[in-house]
Amino acid sequence: MKRIGLISFVFVLFIISFSGFAQQPNSSINKSYVIVLHGGAGNISPENTPPEKQAALKSALSEALSAAKQVLSKGGSSLDAVVAAIKVLEDSPLFNAGKGAVLTAEGKAELDAAIMDGKTLKAGAVAGVTIVKNPITAARAVMDQSVHVMMAGKGADQFAREQKLEIVDPSYFITPERWKSYLKIKEQDSIKRVKEKFGTVGAVALDMDGNLAAATSTGGMMMKKFGRVGDSPIIGAGTYASNEACAVSATGHGEFFIRNVVAYDIVALILYKEWSVEKASDYVINHKLKEQGGEGGVICLDRKGNIATPFNTPGMFRAWLKFDGKSEKIEIAFFK
Ligand code: ASP
User: Fold this and answer.
1) Which fold has domain 31-335?
2) Ligand 1: which residue has its CA nearest to atom 9?
């Protein structure tokens, strides 16, 4: 009788070990999540970023980190987290995305955004939208609610209306500061123009389920010709995510990032050469691009939570929050 009791006890233990209970210790490992942000790269130095501006940028980036954390800490998806963070940065007039975006040569805001899901490789992007308050929501709608990957111009604006996204007057995006610098830059020569700061915003995240996502939103380059599309909304150039490699969001001189397919190039080096995110992103940004004169940087994140944020400009606004299941670490940095 005793023996039967022992056998059934062992049997019950065996069943438990194959059920959800046995995964309890492991699941605590998966309580980890990470969010990494950028607010643009370029000629950013302590000399041209006064302390009040630095404080304002820090608080906007912290707010965006918190918005993403709200999602991730409750077990939400990396896709929802990157959208939450980007919306905060689009609403802030400090960055070149949404409100406060740079202006075309005609003095208008034409906005680009993209999002990609590392689990399914689904992606959505909009280019040259003019009335969508949060272009990242339009990119998300293209991914989730259409059979397409990218929509541009009037068609994208119309699609956003149909999706009942928040619509604003085009003047909403133009801040007095941007208008002032637009008038100033208009008088300078075009070579100087491209040396300006890049203030695009980007986010990459890893959720508790181990899924990666990437998102980027921008007004593009100051004084761009109307209709010009940069790297940010181009899947593989300024934005890419694959659970097999990493999630990437870029900022910099878009034409170089498009020609070098930067985001996917980093992913490919990881996939085919088995390089780390650090090695792959450093090679592309600090060697390949630098040799061509392509200015900018990227934020990268892999499934193990490894972060790389290389840039070949004097500075890049960047911030990350990492929760390893026990404690949280936050870092916000601007300069080299
Ligand atoms: N990469 C963006 C573009 O070329 C600019 C930026 O990063 O600020 O459109």
Assistant:
1) Glutamine Phosphoribosylpyrophosphate, subunit 1, domain 1 (3.60.20)
2) 220
